[in-house]
């Protein structure tokens, strides 16, 4: 706030100044300023009251300020200073001092800001760029010129100005302008040292002090100002591909958003455009975060409470993709105490190569309808089922027919092992506002039918243990022509050791099935549940119904038998995924004896087996086998944190009965009860956390090609899945 007066005596020119008004050499003083003879209105003194000044807001110069919009529609002030602090301020009441909300600490001066979506991009001294998600208050990326290959062209000069357009970040410094593309494409340096024929000439070698992006209907321009008194403008329209998301989400939904099936398809078409590839955070962190915001806004537009829940940062200090939390509150009066259903899903997807011509539709992140199917990465795993569930709950809520609370927990790290998910749920139990005693069940739709024609319900998943076995020597890599035969080689020791893990399985095992190999870890099969005749008969019935009654069969269905199903679904297995050796890249030098060799191994385990007991037995067994080699080499066994417990649901409980009834109403046939050999880490954790049973409702067909090229989902399956979940949420 400021005040003004018509009395000019308080202006700085009329005040005594200890420096300017002091006597100089010889006792002379500077002549006083002459009174203006202008006929203009008398000047006004504008002052800021002391109570509106935040003393020592930063312990250094305040280099940059910006205003950002919050998810709730409000505004916050962001300040950056020479003390390396980025501070968020609330100034909702102009009569009161702004309130400090949060501080991000860094080790370098903050020189510049730019804001896009929920991201704050900060340019630091020494050429560093840091990116925070203001919604989850997390550092999601820190770019150091000497550490990141993507930024190898970034200079170490202070980042004096930033501008962002789609996936391109423009950085100005005394070196000129540089362009960094977050999708991992070629970084372009817009440098003063570029040849005169280059279109990227920046202020003749002077410092770039300011930048701005100007959008017009015809073109997009980047304008830069430097210390040479010039403005330089480039046409950057070509860096505006249609596949990029704008800095605003592409759809803003009215308060009464449509819930038609046509809107469901439009929302899904937008949903799949986000390249939510969690396995490559350096390239796709922006799309993942924007997708989470898209889901939060979608839930809110349909009347749900919604928020993003941050996950613990990685060991490198950068943020993982947040969990999207949404809650539709029951709004139908009932004499029965209100229960809660939790829907679990994931918005991240497996990588899809956009240059791969194997996709029949051309682009994996552009949804295309063809012959009754929708093709796109993630359309079946797991974005289509997520939207079917949201639209089902939203429709009941709008009709005031929702008798249960429906809570959505949609994570963005499932394809990478759900790292941080369990910790985030445990730490936010109070925020989730879920009374464990009221949770009726957990539902997920992250599986597929056994064929093309028979709807299914899944009641079992295998767990997984990932282990790395390394054999190494004390010396360096050696030359096979000089040292071959002198000592035991780590690679040969490793191959011998791996051969001790399995053997051929000549007979049916005690569990009634037949796997291709038998695992030799001591006591490995002791806890595997035995089969009875009733279970064998169920497998035979599945085979009979699938093979005899399917109008279309994929190649696997022709070879189905009880033993194959049991080997895939209810028996454990061991896989050696790859072997790595030290030395130059494979094929470049065939004379090296590697000093170390390691193997990535996984074990798929089944219900009643203990992860910790198997890990303990495996370490003892491999160590004893290796000691029997009497080798001078050494062994190292490490387990990945990405592990998953097996899950076995109760297919006879009330949740499966409700789903079975709803499926029969939609498909006019009873569902098949099946199991699956894959793993979903969150299922058993959620069951234990909320003391409630889980059910798995497959949405798509066996030919959906999840994780493969030409992933697809039949439109009728999507619409019927919505109706099935609507009936399920009504009970």
UniProtKB/TrEMBL annotation:
| Superkingdom per UniProt | Eukaryota
Q: Name one GO molecular function term.
A: metal ion binding
A Pfam family matched by this chain, by name? WD40
Q: Where is the Peptidase M20 dimerisation domain?
A: 459-621
Q: Where are the WD repeats?
A: 55-93, 216-244
- Keyword Metal-binding listed? The answer is yes
Its GO biological process terms?
glutathione catabolic process; proteolysis
Q: Which UniProt keywords apply?
A: Hydrolase, Metal-binding, Protease, WD repeat
Q: Which InterPro entries match?
A: Cyt/Met_Dipeptidase, GSH_degradosome_Dug2, Peptidase_M20, Peptidase_M20_dimer, WD40/YVTN_repeat-like_dom_sf, WD40_repeat_dom_sf, WD40_rpt
Against SUPFAM superfamilies, the record matches this protein to:
WD40 repeat-like (SSF50978), Zn-dependent exopeptidases (SSF53187)
Family of this protein: Belongs to the peptidase M20A family.
Q: What's the protein here called?
A: Zn-dependent exopeptidase
Organism ancestry: Eukaryota, Fungi, Dikarya, Ascomycota, Saccharomycotina
């Amino acid at each position: 706030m400021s005040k003004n007066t018509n009395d000019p005596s308080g202006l700085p020119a009329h005040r005594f100044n200890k420096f300017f008004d002091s006597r100089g050499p010889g006792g002379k003083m500077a002549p006083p300023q002459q009174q203006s003879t202008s006929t203009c209105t008398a000047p006004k003194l504008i002052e800021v009251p002391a109570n509106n000044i935040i003393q020592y807001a930063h312990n250094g110069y305040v280099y940059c300020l910006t205003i950002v919009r919050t998810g709730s529609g409000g505004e916050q002030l962001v300040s950056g200073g020479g003390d390396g602090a980025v501070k968020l301020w609330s100034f909702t009441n102009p009569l009161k001092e702004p309130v400090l909300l949060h501080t991000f600490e860094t080790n370098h001066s903050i020189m510049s800001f730019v804001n896009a979506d929920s991201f704050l991009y900060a340019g630091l001294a020494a050429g560093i760029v840091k990116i925070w998600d203001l919604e989850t208050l997390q550092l999601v990326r820190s770019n150091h010129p000497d550490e990141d290959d993507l930024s190898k062209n970034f200079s170490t000069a202070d980042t004096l100005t930033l501008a962002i357009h789609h996936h391109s970040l423009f950085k100005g410094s005394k070196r000129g302008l540089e362009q960094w593309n977050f999708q991992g494409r070629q970084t372009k340096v817009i440098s003063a040292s570029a040849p005169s024929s280059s279109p990227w000439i920046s202020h003749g070698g002077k410092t770039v002090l300011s930048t701005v992006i100007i959008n017009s209907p015809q073109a997009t321009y980047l304008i830069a100002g430097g210390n040479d008194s010039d403005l330089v403008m480039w046409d950057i329209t070509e860096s505006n591909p249609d596949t990029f998301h704008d800095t605003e989400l592409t759809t803003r939904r009215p308060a009464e958003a449509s819930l038609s099936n046509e809107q469901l398809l439009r929302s899904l078409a937008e949903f799949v455009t986000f390249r939510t590839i969690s396995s490559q955070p350096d390239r796709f962190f922006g799309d993942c975060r924007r997708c989470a915001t898209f889901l939060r806004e979608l839930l809110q537009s349909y009347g749900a409470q919604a928020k993003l829940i941050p996950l613990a940062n990685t060991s490198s200090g950068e943020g993982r993709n947040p969990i999207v939390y949404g809650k539709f509150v029951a709004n139908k009066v009932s004499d029965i105490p209100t229960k809660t259903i939790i829907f679990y899903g994931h918005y991240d997807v497996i990588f899809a190569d956009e240059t791969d011509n194997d996709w029949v539709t051309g682009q994996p992140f552009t949804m295309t309808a063809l012959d009754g199917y929708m093709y796109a990465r993630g359309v079946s795993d797991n974005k289509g089922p997520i939207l079917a569930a949201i639209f089902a709950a939203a429709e009941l809520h709008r009709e005031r027919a929702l008798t249960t609370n429906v809570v959505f927990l949609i994570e963005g790290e499932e394809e990478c092992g759900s790292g941080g998910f369990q910790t985030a749920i445990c730490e936010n139990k109070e925020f989730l506002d879920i009374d464990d005693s009221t949770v009726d069940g957990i539902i997920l739709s992250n599986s597929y039918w056994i064929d093309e024609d028979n709807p299914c319900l899944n009641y079992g998943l295998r767990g997984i243990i990932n282990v790395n076995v390394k054999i190494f020597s004390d010396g360096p890599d050696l030359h096979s022509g000089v040292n071959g035969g002198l000592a035991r080689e780590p690679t040969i020791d490793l191959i011998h050791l791996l051969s001790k893990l399995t053997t051929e399985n000549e007979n049916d095992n005690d569990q009634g099935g037949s796997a291709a190999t038998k695992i030799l870890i001591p006591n490995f099969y002791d806890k595997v549940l035995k089969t009875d005749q009733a279970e064998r008969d169920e497998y035979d019935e599945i085979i009979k119904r699938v093979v005899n009654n399917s109008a279309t069969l994929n190649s696997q269905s022709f070879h189905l038998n009880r033993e194959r199903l049991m080997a895939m679904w209810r028996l454990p297995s061991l896989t050696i995924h790859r072997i790595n050796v030290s030395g130059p890249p494979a094929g470049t030098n065939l004379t090296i004896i590697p000093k170390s060799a390691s193997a990535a191994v996984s074990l798929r385990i089944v219900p009643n087996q203990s992860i910790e007991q198997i890990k303990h037995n495996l370490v003892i067994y491999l160590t004893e086998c290796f000691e029997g080699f009497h080798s001078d080499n050494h062994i190292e066994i490490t387990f990945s944190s990405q592990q998953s417990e097996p899950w076995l649901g109760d297919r006879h409980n009330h949740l499966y009965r409700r789903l079975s009834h709803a499926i029969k109403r939609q498909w006019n046939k009873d569902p098949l009860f099946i199991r699956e050999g894959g793993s979903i880490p969150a299922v058993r954790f959620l069951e234990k956390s909320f003391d409630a049973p889980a059910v798995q409702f497959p949405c798509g067909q066996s030919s959906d090609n999840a994780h493969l090229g030409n992933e697809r989902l039949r439109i009728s399956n999507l619409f019927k899945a919505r109706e099935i979940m609507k009936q399920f949420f009504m009970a």
